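pasting for the record
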Amino acid sequence: MQTSLLTLTATALLAALCGCGETARLPANADVGPRPTLPEPVQTLLPTVQVAEPRPWQAGEAPAPAPGLQVQAFATGLDHPRWLHVLPNGDVLVAETNAPPRPDEGKGFKAWVQGLLMKKAGAAVPSANRITLLRDTDGDGRADVREAFLQNLNSPLGMALVGERFFVANTDAVQEYAYAAGQTRLAGPARTLAQLPAGPRNHHWTKSLIASPDGSRLYATVGSNSNVAEHGMAAEQGRAAIWEIDAATGARREFATGLRNPNGMAWLPAPGGTTAAVLWTVANERDELGSDLVPDYLTSVREGGFYGWPYSWYGRHVDARVSPQRPDLVARAVVPDYALGAHVAALGLAAAGSSPLPAALPGAAPGGVFVGLHGSWNRKPPSGYKVVYVGFADGRPKGLPVDVLTGFLGPDGVAHGRPVGVAIDAKGALLVADDVGNVVWRITVR
């Protein structure tokens, strides 16, 4: 009886939340690009909520590619695939993963509500804690070999290969394994290269990973432990940051801070045609300032740069909810390079490189990036739920994002899938991990 009453209460509460809140008022694309429109914050008694219920793809269904492109399933029947890494021999690694146990994350009324929302969105399934290897031996664009590459991990996400050393970013540490080309399984033993901030709250649990071009350093993303430091800054020690890790010794330092929830990373050429490479990331900004704020963004990452969180958003716009204030930090907050739209939940990032796909997208500048937009919960109408391409010119984003893969969110508000990690495979096709559809999609030129 008590369980039934709680279920009814939760259902009624979710219905009330989904029926409340303000709506977006900015024109389409006003919150996108290098100079987005940033209206005044809107705060309501209850947060704006619109959660898409998951209903995975049925036989014969697929997301919609842009004109000139085509899509097929590279692998199906996966267990919450979130992240991708392509090995030099063409093998594709997929992290089948979800949040670890977080006993302190569910405490309090607000956390309880957020847990209900995540469950409604299909994000509360247990973590498989596995990296799976997918191999296409006959070249038909579908994986016909599937092996458990690594198992018994701890909510893994990011992966990097440096020579014969394979690195995995678990939620609490970067682990190193020996790897030989063509291996389908790694037996270990693992070496713990560096610890990462985690703990019993571990609000943003995902840790992305990328190696420097010369392989001497690794970069790991660590999201914040809250929306706007409501648990105090002691709970944010080492978080909302990108860490630089010495790949030989494990020595680490904060490379950039004030990034609420950085995710995918990529190396892109520096402006001016030099041979230098610049680190870029996509980051999720804060919630509960209205449907039009704050844009998630794509930005270059400056060594020692501070990007505002929690004290300010999108540069130096002060967040009055945070106490005590830090005007000294706000004064040096870096303005992101490019807004991707409010609440789109930008997660995956992949440099296009020599992929032929951008040339098939009308008006798209070459040399850009693909971004997986997982989709909103704190916005009406919903935003994200697609993969986009952002072109670059002279080392900077150019023009509006171009839709590459859409149709994840149906007109009935049901999510058939949600894109997360993106990667370019050995033949220049785009791979997309879909953690609701449990599919890895492959997009090629028609």
